[in-house]
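Assess this today:

___
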Amino acid sequence: MQPDPKARALLFDCDGTLVDTMPLHLKAWEYAINFYGYKFDYDFFFSKKGMPSKEIIKLYNEQFGADADPEKIVSTKNEYFRQHADSIKPIEPVASVVYEYHNKLPMAVVSGGSKDNVMQSLVVTGLDKYFDLIVTADDNIKHKPAPDIFLYAAEKLSVEPEYCVVYEDGDFGVEAAKAAGMMIVDVRDFIEVE
């Protein structure tokens, strides 16, 4: 879990990496999809973690031949998430890296989640005060699996990509970090995921 000694910056995914929100996100997806009369598919939504929510609904429509409105579904999903956010806990093995390297290396959160949800997760868990930069799906940057969001964070932290370590739990994020030429810690190797 410790970063490579060459590391000059640490970049963390949020959901499922820093904070244990995946069960809540999946419940929120299930609620929103069912609320609008569509069929919830656990495996589909779980496999899309790390992607912006509206993109997930576009893929849902393609895969299941649905006509779900991304704006309405995502709004309902986010409202459910916010109402139940007090259940969110930090993922301790990853959070301990954050505590240890605070004020030693620049650190950023780089997430495919919405700014509101990411900030709420960080505030609820007390992790919000540890980061120099927070980049989310609401920023106008091409998201995972493209490398752009990680490259943007590296540039803002003034660190060359090859000296950045990315902590990730999703295939899209790992793919994006590799494409950015960064070092990767796949937290799934260290933590239990639901």
